[in-house]
Amino acid sequence: xxxxxxxxxxxxxxxxxxxxxxxxxxxxxxxxxxxAFGVAExxxxxxxxxxxxxxxxxxxxxxxxxxxxxEECARLDRAHSVAADTIADDPRPYRVYLxxxxxxxxxxxxxxxxxxxxxxxEQGAVCFSWLGTGPLMAxxxxxxxxxxxxxxxxxxxxxxxxxxxxxxxxxxxxxxxxIAELHARAVALGGWPDSLTRASYRPVDHVxxxxxxxxxxxxxxxxxxxxxxxxxxxxxxxxxxDLHLAGGGGVVVLDTRLVTGWPLVRAGxxxxxxxxxxxxxxxxxxxxxx
Length: 290
Fold this sequence. Notes:
Blueprint: E1 7-13, E2 16-21, E3 26-28, E4 34-39, H1 71-78, E5 94-102, E6 105-112, H2 118-123, E7 127-134, H3 136-150, H4 158-164, H5 172-187, E8 197-198, E9 204-205, H6 207-210, E10 218-222, E11 230-239, E12 242-247, E13 250-255, E14 264-266, E15 276-278
Parallel strand pairs: 10-13
Antiparallel strand pairs: 1-2, 2-3, 4-11, 4-14, 5-6, 5-7, 7-8, 7-9, 10-15, 11-12, 12-13
């Protein structure tokens, strides 16, 4: 039987996207790389555990789950999450940001200063600008203020982000226009916590980092992995957890969160044989992919 590996997920380094494997190994993903792997025959997707600890019962989890955790491990992971607002005494400084994912898709969020822009890369933000820096609770109060005053959300579904990546405005200035306007409105508001220092508007654009320039429209997205199924394609772009893979039937998006927990094996040249969900409006794609 071929040796099986388990993927810990997609990470973003200074050089681009990297697949990380259990045990610490990693695989860089330069543009043009041929991505090819299969799920072991008879394999099952098991819970990835929580907070660096293995799932005590090695629970089987659904193929379509992007969390890859059983109910108990998901609860434990969430119980120590800044995003879930369950930590109030974190001493690290935090930043508040505005992120843009496409026309009409702007969100406000916070991230630890020590993480730099990693959080924005992980979310697939096409461009962003910092709004301010301060203690965690001051950053959280500022986020809540801006959510109410600017009318923007703190979450945008990945399906909506994927739908616009191949049709973004051509220039960085056009892409940043919405956050420029919202940044000006945000810093003019009263009620900011005294302990949070406001930041000047300095947009950062990720189109080059993600490889989105000239990106062909995706024809579908991987719905789930299955035992014995294979994934093949040439990497043409990546954003957040998503890999855009080009094959004979067009570009298909693989959300790498669907990969964690599966026993994976090497695969040679072949076809994409996992279930793929056709994207709305697509009619000219090979039916056998779906």
